[in-house]
# Entry
Amino acid sequence: MKKILMAGLLTASLGSGLANAATIVVDFEGIHNWDLVDGYGGLSGWDSMGGQISSYSDFETHGPELGENRLHTRAGELTFDQGPVIFQGLYYNYWGSDTDVSFSLFYQGEKVYSSPLDGENQPRDIYWLASGYAGLVDKIQFHGQSGDGFIVDNLTYSAAPVPLPAPIWLFGTGLIALFDSRRWRV
# Structure
C-alpha cells in the first residue's frame, strides 16, 4: 500500500506536464540612462523607444514597490529576447494631448491583442495596466501619434511554460506499472 501511495505522489508531482516559469519584473532600479541597453530586463528595442530613466518627482505619487526610478518614453517596440513570454502588464501613466494611444501584442509576426489607452480618463498617478491577454507574445508595441509620452515601471512578464519531455511521463507510467505488478504477485 505504501508503494502505491508513493507512485501516486510521484505521478501527481509530474503535474500538468508544464514546468513552472519565473516572473520577471523590469524595474529600472540601479541604472542610469546610459545603462539602458538592448538586453536589459530580457528585452531589446530600448533605443527605438527613445526613453530616459529618471526618478519619481516629489509631485508624483507612487507606492514603495515601484522604487525610485521609472522610464519616460514614447511610442516604440520591445522584443522579448528569450522567446515567447506571457506579458502580464506594467505600471503606466500617459501625459499629453494625443487621443490615439494604444499598445499591441504580437506573436510570430501576428498581432494577437491590441488595446486603446484612454489618456483623458486615466488616473492622475501611475497605475497598474494589466495586459488583458494571457497568451504567448514575443513583441509589444506602444503607439502614439504625437511627441507626447508615457511613464513605464515594473514591466512584468513570465517565461512561457515549458512542456515536460515525454520520457518523464514514460518514467512515471513505468513506476506505476512496476508497483502495480508487484502488488498482484504478492
Remarks:
- The CA atoms of residues 93 and 126 lie 5 Å apart.
